[in-house]
Amino acid sequence: MSKQILVTGGTGYIGSHTVVELQQEGYDVVVVDNLSNSNIEVLDNIAKITGKKPQFEQFDLADRAKTEAFFEKYPNVEAIIHFAASKAVGESVEKPLLYYRNNLVSLMNLMDCMGKYDVKNFVFSSSCTVYGQPEKLPVTEATPRQDAESPYGNTKKVCEDIMSDTMKANTGLKSIALRYFNPIGAHESALIGELPNGVPNNLVPFITQTAAGLRDELKVFGDDYNTPDGSCMRDFINVVDLAKAHVVAIERLLNDKNKENYEIFNLGTGNGSSVLELINAFEKSTGVKLNYSIVGRRAGDIEKIWAETSYANNELGWKAEKGLEETLLSAWNWEKKVRGIK
Ligand code: UD1
C-alpha cells in the first residue's frame, strides 16, 4: 500500500507543486487547507497532471478539535508536510496576532497530534528570512539567525524553535525544517502556479501581471544597494525543484536516513541574481518587453542573500536544476493561461 502523507496548505503555491511530485512518486496524499488564500479548483488541476485527485479536508489547523478529528478519520498518515500559514509580510505588521495565532497555533496543534496519533515524521516550510541580512554570503545552515524584520518572519523563527524544543522532548519524533530562498515559476503544464490575491507583493507575480497588462508598471525598489547593478539580489529557485526537495526530505525521514531528529536545510540554487537581471532574463526568455521604473527602497528589504547549497546537495542528494530563463518562462506561461492570453 502506498504511504499516506498529509500536506497542509496543499492547494497553495508551493503546496500544490509538492502534492504533484509526491503523487508522481507514488504517495497517497491528503490535503488540508482552509482555502483562505487558495482555490478548490487547484485539486482538479493537480488531477489533470497526475491522474489522481488528492483527498481533501477543508478546515483551519488552528482549530484543535477539528485537527484531532482529522487524525481520527485518517489513522494511516505517516508524515506531515506543513505549508499552511499566513505569509504576507506587510499584513503581518498590521495584524501581528492573526499571524502568531495562525502560524504558531497550527504548528503546535499538529505537533501535539503527532504524539497523540503516532505520526512520527514532519517537514516544515521555513524561510531564509530567519537569516536577516547575513554578514557573510553565501549563507550556510550554521549562519546565525537574526531578529526578524516582521511578525511573519518571527513566526518562522519561533516555529523552528518550537520544532527544535519539541524534538528534544520527544525523541521518537523526527522533523526537518526547509529554509526556502525565493521560490518562483510554475509547473511546466501551466495547470498550477502562483495566484496571489489582489496586488502581488512578490516580484515575479508582479512582473507577469505587468506583462499581462493587469498592472501598468513594475516598480523596482531601489538601485542604490551595494550590489553590481544597485538592485537587490536574491536566490530565485524554481518551485518544482523546491517541491522535489520535499519528497527527498520525506523519504529521508520515512527511511530513517536522518542524522538527528531535528534537521535544517537551505533550499536555494546557490546563485544570487539581481532584480534587474531577473527583469532582463524575463524579457529574453519570453520576448515580452516589461514596463518598469526605478523607485525608492522598500522598507524592510534585505540587500542581498543567496544560499550555500552544498549541505543540501550532499546530504539530501538533491540539487536545483532548472535555470532562471526556463523558470521565468514557466511563470509567464502560467500567467497567460490564467488570463486567457494566447
Ligand atoms: C519576501 C519576504 C520573505 C518571505 C517571502 C515570501 C521581505 C523582506 N521578505 O521575500 O520574508 O519569505 O517574501 O514570499 O518582505 N521587488 C521589486 N518590486 C516589486 C516586488 C519586489 O523591486 O514589485 C524586489 C524587492 O525589493 C526584493 C526582490 O524584488 O528586492 C524580491 O522581493 P519579493 O519577491 O517580495 O521577495 P523577498 O522580499 O525576498
What is this structure, in a nutshell?
Helices cover 40% and strands 17% of the residues. The protein is of the alpha/beta class and 342 residues long.
What would you say this structure looks like, in words?
The protein is of the alpha/beta class. It has 2 domains: 215 residues, Rossmann fold, CATH 3.40.50; 84 residues, UDP-galactose 4-epimerase, domain 1 (Alpha-Beta Complex). It contains 11 helices and 13 strands. The strands form 4 sheets. Strands 3-2-1-4-5-6-11 form a 7-stranded parallel beta sheet, sandwiched between helices. Strands 7-10 form a two-stranded parallel sheet. The chain has a two-stranded parallel ribbon with strand order 8-13. It is globular, with a radius of gyration of 19 Å. It starts with a strand and ends with a helix. The structure holds uridine-diphosphate-N-acetylglucosamine. The site of uridine-diphosphate-N-acetylglucosamine has 22 residues, from helix 7 and strand 8.
